[in-house]
Amino acid sequence: MANPSGPRAVEAPPRRVDGYLPIExxxxxxxxxxxxxxxxxxxxxxxxxxxxxxxxxxxxxLDPADGGSFSxxxxxxxxxxxxxxxxxxxxxxxxxxxxxxxxxxxxxxxxISQNAPWRELVRRVEGLSGTVPMQWRLRPRFDYGQVSSDxxxxxxxxxxxxxxxxxxxxxxxxGKPSVERGTxxxxxxxxxxxxxxxxxxxxxxxxxxxxxxxxxERRLQATVTLWRDWLGHTTYAGPWKPAVQRSLLAIRxxxxxxxxxxxxxxxxxxxxxxxxxxxxxxxxxxxRDLSFxxxxxxxxxMEELAxxxxxxxxxxxxRTRPRIDPVYALTGDALRSQEKLPLPGYRRTGxxxxxxxxxxxxxxxxxxDLVETVSRYVESGHVLASETGERIADSADLLSAIxxxxxAGLWELQDYAHYATSKIGCWSAFDRVLALADARQxxxxxxxxxxxxxxxxxxxxxxxxxxxxxGSYVMKAGSDxxxxxxxxxxxxxxxDTHGPRLRGTIRAIRGELQAEGPLFYRYSGMQEExxxxxxxxxxxxxxxxLAGQVDEAAAMMDALVSLGGGxxxxxxxxxxxxxxxxxNFPQALTHLALISAADIVARCAGDAGAPGxxxxxxTS
Length: 620
Description:
The protein has 620 residues and is α+β, with helices and mostly antiparallel strands. The chain folds into 2 domains: 23-209, Beta-galactosidase, Chain A, domain 5 (Distorted Sandwich); 231-604, Glycosyltransferase, CATH 1.50.10.10. 31% of the residues lie in helices and 22% in strands. It has helices at residues 142-145, 213-231, 241-253, 287-299, 303-318, 365-379, 386-402, 420-438, 447-464, 488-491, 500-512, 534-546, 550-562, 588-604; strands at 26-30, 35-39, 43-48, 56-58, 69-74, 79-84, 91-96, 100-108, 118-139, 152-154, 157-162, 165-172, 178-180, 183-191, 195-204, 285-286, 327-328, 338-341, 352-355, 466-467, 472-473, 514-516, 519-520, 532-533, 573-574, 581-582. It has a 15-stranded antiparallel sheet that branches. Strands 24-25-26 form a 3-stranded antiparallel sheet. It has a two-stranded antiparallel sheet with strand order 16-17. Mean pLDDT is 94; it is low at 607-620.
C-alpha cells in the first residue's frame, strides 16, 4: 500500500500553464488558524491572513498575475522531492541541481495556547551538497489581490500594513532584500552544511513581534513535537495507517484548535470542472461535515478534537434554533449569502466567490446530521447539558412538522424534491432522538410524535424511493436516477447491510455511476457535467465492507489510497484518466470519508475489533 508521507522519486517540477500549477502540485501547511498552499516549485500561492476565512494575502492560485505569492527556490534549473516530516504537517522539499542540493523546510509554527494574535510562517534552507544559488520573492496582494503596498523597515524587518493587518518579513543569511513596487526580493548562495532562514509574521490590529532566529528555530522544533504528540492519540492500527494519519493531519489543518470549527476546505472557488461554473467558497463549517468529523474522530480515538467540534456545532445551531442551517461561518454566525470577486479564477475558470448561500437552503438531512452527531457523542460516554437536550427536542419537533417538504438534498441542488438522502436523514434524526430520550439526554415530551414520524418516514422511503425495476433506492421520488449518497444508509443503520435492498443499490450504482476504477460520479447525469466525487468512492468502500464484500472493499481502498500521490492529500473531485485533482483543496469531506472507510473495512475484516455489521435501528 502507498505511503502518503514517504519519500518520492526526484522529479522535475511540473511546468506552469499560464501561471497555474496543477492542484496536486501543492502541499498544505497550517497552524489550525490559517493555511498555506506551497507549490512544488517553492511558491506559496494561497494564504489568507490572519485567519483561514479572511481575505487572501497570497492569491496567485486564483490570479497568477496579480494575486500575490511568496516564492523560494533555486535560481537554476532543479528537480524536486517532497515529503512531510513523519507524523507532522511540516513540509520538506529537496531540490537537486547541477550545482548541488538543498532542503527547504516550510511550516506555520503552532502556538501552544492557540491564542497568539499572529501567525508565523517559517522557511528554512539547508545546504546538502555543493553550492546552490537561491532566490526568493515576496509579493503580497491584500483583499484578494486588489491592494498592493510598499513595506517599511522596522525592528530589523520589512513591514507591510493594510488596514489592521501587519505583515513582516525577516531573514538570516538569506541575502540583502531589495524592494521595488511592493515586491521584496533576495538572492543568496548556500553551501553544504550551511543554513538560511526567512520568517513571515502576520497579525491583525496588535503589536507585531520581531522574532529572533533562535526563537524561530525553537518554535519550529516545538511544532514538530506538537504535531507528533497530537497524532499519537489515534488508536487506528489497521492496514492503511499512513493514509489515515495523513488524513487526520489534513483535518487538523482545517480545524480551529480554539473553537473546534472544522472548515470544509482550505480554499475558495477551485472549480469542479475547468470551464464550468461550480466554483464555491468552502471556508466555512457544514453541519454535515461536522457529523462526519465527530464520527471519524471518535472511531480512531481522537476525542479531544471531537469534544471541541461538538461544542462548536451546538453553539452554532443554537443561534438559529430550532432551524438547522446547512452551513455556518467559522464564528458560528449564520451565513446565507455570497458575492463575486473580481478575480479570473483557477485556470481562468470563474466566478470566484466569497461567502456561501447554501445556508439559505432547506436541507432536511441536516437535522439527521446534527442528531447523529449528538447521539454518537453520547454513545461514547458523554452527557448533554439540559439546554442542549431542549434544543435537540425543539429541532425534532420542527422536523416532525416539515419532513414531508421538498428540499435541496445532500448536494445542495436548486431543484427542490423529495431526496432519498434527506429522508434517510430525517429517519435517522427521529431514530436517534428517541434513543436520546430513552437515555434521558433529551426531554421525552413528544416521544410518540417522533416515533410516529420515524415510522412514516420509513414507509415513504420504502414505497416512494425504492425502484423494483432498478432493484435500488433512487435519488428522488418520481425518478429512476441513482445517487451515491444513498450508500450512507448503510453507515446510519437504516437498512440491513446484508439484505437485498442494500446489495441491489450497490450493484445498481456500480453499474451506472462507476467512472473509472475506484472513482464514482455523485448521481445520474453527472458523467458529462463534472468529475468523479472522491468521497463517494469511500462511501462505496464502506457499503461494500458492511455488506460482507470485504475483499472488494479492501482492494478499492488500496486503489484510492494510491491516488493520493506522495503527499496523501485529496481535493473534492478527480478527473478520470489524468487523475488531476479538481475542486477545493484539501477537502475535509474526502479525508473524513477515508478515515471512516479505513476503520470500517478493518473492523469488518476483523483487523481492528469486532465485525462491523450494522443492523437497522428503530424498526420495531
